[in-house]
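Exercise 7b. Backbone tokens:
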């Protein structure tokens, strides 16, 4: 009887706590709810067709099916989510470590039957160059994108791929192409914006007066071009390696897509190299013009110094108070001396003016 009463009291207490939970008690989130803010999209595809959104816990059930692959998009994932992704996709711990630390250079690394890529995205925001990182895990049955510090969303890339189911049926290799192509396409507006900055600075270069701000902007532009080259140039090796050595993921029917990316990257690099050469030449011309302007000032000072040296020398002689100067007793000596100095200074001024010193 007492045991029955105790059970009833416990049941009533549990119901009371459920109806009026303490204000300081937080209910921990588990499963996909805990990762909702960091998971942009997790979709399974079969034969290029959208099967539907799946949860993180269901990933391992789909990646084992032939003709099916999972496309997962993450943004700024925490350590717990990365560990879960590592477990679901059987990823290498070194690749997870690189994703956790971020700030990696563009590269391609192979870990068993999966690949790990680091890509740098770029865009101009209020005339300021901003970079972000995209880490990509790709295998025969999955592709995972992890975004760090970039506002670029891959939702348009996914929509574009889903509108081409025949191409998407080729597997994660085509999805990887679409992502790289999307990043490379955003390089072009950045290059155009940097070109406009260079043209404006080029006009300032040939102004007559020295402006330190112009020189600082030239150096800033050169620094941005160097960063852009660091982001784009490694893509040539990445695309070549994908085509030549990873046919299990990049099939022959989509290799020409990567050759198209390589061609775009080559043209972007050519634009960057040409702009860097022109920028270096502009800086040299600017410094040369500054030096020429300083020389002109020195020449003018030297010319006026030569003109003033003539009366200074004559007056210094008369300031020595010699008694044997015969013209001291001549009543017209003073106006004659002044007239001679004026004529001599005017002649010297005309000569320096014709020589371009004044």
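Sequence design result:
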């Amino acid at each position: 009887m007492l045991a029955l009463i105790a059970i009833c009291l416990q049941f009533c207490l549990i119901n009371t706590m459920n109806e009026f939970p303490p204000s300081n008690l937080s209910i921990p989130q588990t499963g996909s709810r805990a990762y909702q803010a960091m998971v942009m999209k997790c979709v399974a595809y079969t034969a290029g067709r959208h099967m539907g959104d799946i949860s993180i816990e269901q990933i391992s059930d789909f990646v084992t099916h032939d003709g099916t692959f999972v496309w997962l998009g993450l943004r700024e994932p925490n350590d717990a989510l990365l560990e879960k992704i590592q477990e679901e996709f059987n990823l290498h711990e070194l690749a997870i470590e690189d994703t956790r630390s971020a700030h990696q250079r563009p590269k391609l690394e192979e870990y068993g039957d999966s690949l790990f890529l680091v890509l740098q995205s770029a865009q101009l925001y209020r005339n300021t160059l901003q970079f972000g990182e995209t880490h990509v895990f790709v295998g025969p049955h999955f592709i995972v994108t992890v975004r760090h510090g970039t506002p670029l969303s891959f939702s348009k890339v996914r929509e574009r791929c889903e509108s081409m189911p025949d191409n998407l049926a080729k597997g994660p290799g085509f999805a990887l192409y679409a992502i790289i192509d999307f990043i490379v396409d955003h390089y072009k507006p950045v290059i155009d914006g940097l070109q406009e900055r260079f043209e404006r600075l080029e006009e300032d270069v040939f102004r007559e007066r020295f402006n330190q701000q112009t020189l600082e902007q030239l150096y800033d532009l050169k620094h941005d071009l160097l960063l852009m080259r660091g982001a784009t140039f490694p893509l040539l090796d990445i695309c070549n390696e994908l085509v030549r050595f990873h046919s299990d993921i990049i099939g022959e029917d989509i290799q020409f897509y990567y050759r198209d990316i390589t061609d775009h990257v080559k043209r972007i690099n050519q634009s960057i190299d040409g702009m860097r050469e022109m920028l270096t030449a502009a800086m040299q011309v600017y410094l040369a013009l500054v030096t020429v302007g300083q020389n002109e000032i020195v020449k003018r000072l030297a010319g006026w110094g030569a003109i003033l040296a003539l009366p200074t020398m004559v007056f210094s002689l008369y300031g020595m108070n010699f008694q044997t100067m015969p013209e001291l007793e001549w009543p017209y000596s003073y106006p004659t001396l002044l007239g001679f100095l004026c004529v001599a200074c005017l002649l010297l001024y005309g000569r320096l003016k014709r020589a371009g010193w004044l």
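Instructor comment: The CA atoms of residues 114 and 299 lie 70 Å apart. Confidence is low (pLDDT under 50) at residues 1-31.
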